[in-house]
TrEMBL record:
Protein name: Ribonuclease BN (tRNA processing enzyme)
Xref: SMART domains: Lactamase_B
Domain Metallo-beta-lactamase, first and last residues per copy: 18-200
InterPro entries: Metallo-B-lactamas, RibonucZ/Hydroxyglut_hydro
One MF term in the entry's GO annotations: 3'-tRNA processing endoribonuclease activity
PANTHER family: METALLO-HYDROLASE YHFI-RELATED, ZINC PHOSPHODIESTERASE ELAC PROTEIN 1
Stored Pfam families: Lactamase_B_2 (PF12706)
């Protein structure tokens, strides 16, 4: 598997990164995990955007879904004619949310986005998407949110999405080769429970799960301190750990 970090900025885009979006590729198949603000632009540095085969939206917060709207324009109005539907997996309510964000019916006479997306509602469990064996489970966040584990060719990648500490996250990360885990918060602040992880909590989860490598993402750099986040995680996890950057590529 090849992981390309398109966007890793937490909660809002930063000067150096769009919001959450990750390309995962295997066997010439491309899966996009989340489609956050600004990511459709940065994505084009790495891939022809028409080559995405499927999309998973882990939850319906704006920083994980918004560029699914301009992508409608890109596919529906392509000069060579509309492109075929692309599978899009998301939580309950995804189609309504995206259609509302896009602007609804009227301007095109198209009552929904179903000409562009073939919507699938995620439920906890396992499914196959292209060559990937996928496990999803609900993690701890104020809205329905799915952590994702991808397996291919005996290798595994777990993506936390946005979450507080929870047992489903540890299970998803169990002995994964790479754990792409959010670390939005800093220790020592009045962080509300069940929303995001600190670097320490990400490191502790990686340790409990026996993850092979920890990649920290979704840092809110304007409000935080990346070096402190990295130090917190390093103190709690003995394996290799780093902060991801937009454009980083990992071979798993
Ligand atoms: Zn987020
Ligand atoms: Zn969120």
């Amino acid at each position: 598997m090849k992981l390309t970090v398109i966007g890793c900025a937490g909660s809002f885009p930063g000067p150096d990164s769009p919001c959450s979006a990750y390309l995962v590729q295997a066997e010439d198949y491309t899966l996009l995990l989340d489609f956050g603000s600004g990511s459709l632009g940065a994505l084009q540095r790495h891939i022809d955007p028409y080559r995405i085969d499927a999309i998973i939206l882990t939850h319906l917060h704006a920083d994980h879904i918004m560029d699914a709207c301009p992508y409608v324009v890109m596919r529906r109005y392509a000069p060579g004619g509309p492109l075929p539907q692309i599978p899009l997996y998301g939580p309950t309510g995804t189609e309504t949310r995206l259609a509302t964000a896009y602007g609804g019916a009227g301007e095109t006479g198209c009552p929904s986005l179903s000409d562009v997306y073939r919507f699938h509602t995620l439920t906890p469990g396992q499914l196959d998407i292209g060559p990937f064996h996928v496990t999803v489970d609900e993690v701890a966040h104020p809205v329905q949110t799915f952590g994702v584990r991808l397996e291919h060719g005996g290798r595994s990648l777990t993506y936390s999405s946005d979450t507080g500490t929870c047992e489903p996250l540890r299970r998803l990360a169990n002995h994964c080769d790479v754990f792409l885990c959010e670390a939005s918060y800093l220790e020592g602040r009045p962080n509300p429970p069940g929303v995001h992880l600190t670097g320490r909590e990400a490191g502790e989860t990686a340790t409990k799960a026996g993850a092979g490598r920890l990649l920290l993402t979704h840092l809110v750099r304007r409000w935080g301190d990346p070096e402190r986040t990295l130090a917190e995680a390093t103190a709690a996890y003995a394996g290799p750990v780093e902060l991801v950057e937009s454009g980083a590529v990992y071979h798993i």
